[in-house]
Amino acid sequence: MAKLTGKKKIFCAVFISGRGTNLKSLHKYSQKKTSLINLKLVISNKSNVAGVKFARKNKIKTKVINYKNKQKAEKKILEILNENQIKLICLAGFMKILSKNFLKKFKNKIINIHPSLLPKYKGLNTHERVIQNREKFSGCTVHFVSEKLDSGKIIIQERIKILKKDNPKSLAKKILRIENKIYPRALQKIIPNF
Q1: Per the structure, how many domains does the chain have?
Q2: The CATH number of the domain where 78 resides is what?
Q3: What SS3 class is residue 110?
Q4: What is the DSSP secondary structure assignment for residue 16, as one 8-state letter?
Q5: Would 2 be classed as within a structural domain?
Q6: Is 30 a member of any domain?
Q7: 50-79 b/e with 16+ CB inside 10 Å = b?
Q8: Which of 27, 114, 127, 143 is catalytic?
């Protein structure tokens, strides 16, 4: 793989389903001179969400994909990604599982952020489970996406101490703040090797 030289940035797409808080932090990062990405595209499976509104307001090309038929949806997404020469996909609260066929087409080019210290607490309701099990620490993980849910190679993790007064809601808030910081750091780490 060719190393990035000079000021060449790679075209990146962010996939969302909701608020787009990590989209905002990736957009902010993409605006920096030191950034290695050009955030060219936002894909969402929902139309009326805050993340889509943010993307449109910031003039990022945005496509809302109807997911009634997963096969058709993925075919359409792949066409859009190819048209826009996308080299990296960042999942940021995208609540759909990508098929094996889709993953093969973007092998080692899709990353995700998950609100737990993987390999612990894969899947949903992580904060509830962490609190229930009286864990002392939690955090978040940026990882490559593989065929197994939340099981791809870890790029970066950050942990925080859970306080006695924490509940799933307060923990979610704290971890989201860390997510916003480490997602751009993960990109800085992997992109020079693209």
Answers
A1: 1
A2: 3.40.50.170
A3: strand
A4: E
A5: no
A6: yes
A7: ebbebbeeeebebbebebeeeeebbeebee
A8: 114
Give me the amino acid identity at 138. Answer: S
Nearest to 158 by CA among 116, 112, 110: 116
Question: Which pLDDT score is estimated for 6?
Answer: 52
On average, the pLDDT of the chain sits at 94
pTM of structure: 0.93
Quick one: pLDDT at residue 7? 56
Q: Would you list the DSSP string of 142-161?
A: EEE--SSTT-SPEEEEEEEE
- Is position 114 annotated as part of the catalytic site? yes
Per-residue pLDDT, 194 = 76
Q: Is 3 among the domain residues?
A: no
- Integer Cα distance of 8 and 147 in angstroms: 30
**Predicted local confidence at residue 192, as pLDDT:** 84
Cβ count near 33 (within 10 Å): 5
- What sign does the dihedral 21-23-24-29 (CA atoms) show? positive
Question: Do residues 137 and 166 lie in contact, with contact meaning Cβ atoms separated by under 8 Å?
Answer: no
Domain that holds residue 136: 10-193
Q: Report the DSSP pairing between strands 37-44 and 137-144.
A: unpaired
| Digit-coded pLDDT (tens) for 5-17 | 455 899 999 999 9
In a domain, residue 5? The reply is: no
Record the tokens describing residue 53, joined without a space: 């509104």
